[in-house]
Amino acid sequence: MTAAAAHRSGRTAVPPGVVARVVLGAVLVVNLLIVELLFFTSGGGKNSVLTVAKFFGLHVALIMMLQLTLVARLPWLDRRIGMDRLTSWHRWVGFSLLWTVVLHATFIVVGYATLDGKPVGRTFLSLAAVPASLLGMCAAAIIIAMATVSVRYIRRRLRYETWHALHMLMYLALLLGLVHQFLEGTTFTASALSTAYWWALWAFVVVSLIVGRIVVPLRRNAYHQLRVSAVVPESDNVVSVHVTGRHLDRLPARAGQFFIWRFPGHNHWTRANPFSLSAAPDGRTLRLTAKAVGDTSTGLRHLPVGTRVFAEGPYGAFTTLHQVKDATLLIAGGVGVTPIRALLEESTGSTVVLYRVQTAADAVLLPELQALAQSRGAQLHVLTGRTGAGTPPNTPFAPDDLLALVPDITDRDVYVCGPPAMTTAVLKTLRTLKVPRAQIHAEKFSLA
């Protein structure tokens, strides 16, 4: 029995993604209730304004813990929710952190100004002369700066490597914030139990981050010893890279997932790209297929055989783990066909594949798709032409047109991967056709 078939036979009533969301939400709510209880039983600040400042300070710490957990790349969460959603949640939680930090700092300054009867400006300078307060101010300044560069307008104008380097300063903010809490915190010093709870919670978050982001990738790469085994041009601007290594049958990768790939010695360490597997893992090799859209992807064509590979992953929830129906619809656009091709290789039930490209010549891996579709009894439709062109207009993903291609679409799991505009259009149509949300699977393969 294949891995896909084994999963289908053991399919659970509650989708794994729902279970993960419930578990994550429950853990958050329980800890939030504990923090609120400890706050209201540990006494207030020196005046009512400082009590409010203390309240916001505690929630700054709790929000920061949540942010770190979301990007710790914990395998259990990532396989069920997906890095793209976890990263998106991390971003929006980050803006909550920003405003909570601003409120905490504002109430601190105003509270001490009220307490000492001094102007706000002079109070701010006085607090900056206190080491513990200065550490908190520095942490707050870094958080505000990082939130600013993460605003979509600014973020889109920065290279990923630049933005990522700046974003690493958040770890400095974390360190400064922890020292600030240790020196200033009073809520969790009321009892040994509350102190143990608070620092155990921090320890869990920090250890999870270190294990997920550092220990696991280093251990896997040391164990598997990945290297380039072949480089195969698929077209003028698309290339496949085959990777081999030791004990790949023990690498927990699935069709539809992606890795963050680095090629030390060929590219600089900061040049990392998320490329999904373009073939289902077979325990012997891994394959990525990429279109030349930047320096790193363009340079893949010139990778020497034997080049060392450092791969972080596998990541992503774009897998049959989340399939709830026996039948599937796989929709690909452009080079987004790579995870779709891998999923088709793993499919066993009734499958329909829609491949959207400008022209048939743009259909990457088309011979493989045709061979796989024939061997699995799947229907393959290559949808060409410019959207909106012709009479009637060419609109393959309009509700009526999509329903004509796949009349039983509401009885299928739908996997969508392609350019953002196409993916958005397909998802809108699926909602119009009332395809149940649990049957819709779409994932954006990017680092930020």
From TrEMBL:
Its cofactor is FAD. Residues 221-321 form the FAD-binding FR-type domain. It comes from the Bacteria. Keywords: 2Fe-2S, FAD, Flavoprotein, Iron, Iron-sulfur, Membrane, Metal-binding, Oxidoreductase, Transmembrane, Transmembrane helix. Gene3D superfamilies: Nucleotide-binding domain of ferredoxin-NADP reductase (FNR) module, Translation factors. It is found in: Membrane. The chain crosses the membrane at residues 18-40, 52-71, 92-115, 127-151, 163-183, 195-216. InterPro entries: FAD-bd_FR_type (IPR017927), Fe3_Rdtase_TM_dom (IPR013130), FNR_nucleotide-bd (IPR039261), MRET (IPR050415), OxRdtase_FAD/NAD-bd (IPR001433), Riboflavin_synthase-like_b-brl (IPR017938). The keyword Lyase does not apply. This is Ferric reductase-like transmembrane domain-containing protein. It is a multi-pass membrane protein. Signal peptide: none annotated. The keyword Isomerase does not apply.
